[in-house]
Amino acid sequence: MNILKICLLVITLVLALFLGIYSTSASVKTVKIEEKTLESEVNRLSVKYEVSSSTVKKIIGCESKMYKEAVNNNYSYKTVTNKDGSTTTVKYVWSKDWGPLQINDFWHEAVMKKMGLDIHDEWDSLEYGFYLIKKEGLKPWNASAYCWKEKIPSVSTSTAHV
Q: Against a cut of 0.85, is the pTM above it?
């Protein structure tokens, strides 16, 4: 168990004692602490943002193969002139896609910060993805539509609002 989980467990138990949920008397009550899972968070956020959980799960399957900590680099190329006059093409990372819905840091990190969300946190990234679907529909995921669109009957990526 890492230190963060231990701290959360201690805080939860202290709160449970304070709220009377947990008892130190002879009749001991069990406090169940549920850990977040990708499925539980998708279901929770689907209700919060009124977005289809099955659609989001299909997109996540295509974008990150259901790996919540997924990070992928987006590369670009530029030509540089060497001292001798020859040219070389250099490959470089211009942005990264984060989390299960692969939120691009170049386009979305500043907005996420204003919302109090951290793009590097998989749960914040997931939440922002739901916000984005609610706001813009499926259009931000057009690049992967070849993968998930066929799994969803009658979806137009330009106008669909899940």
A: no
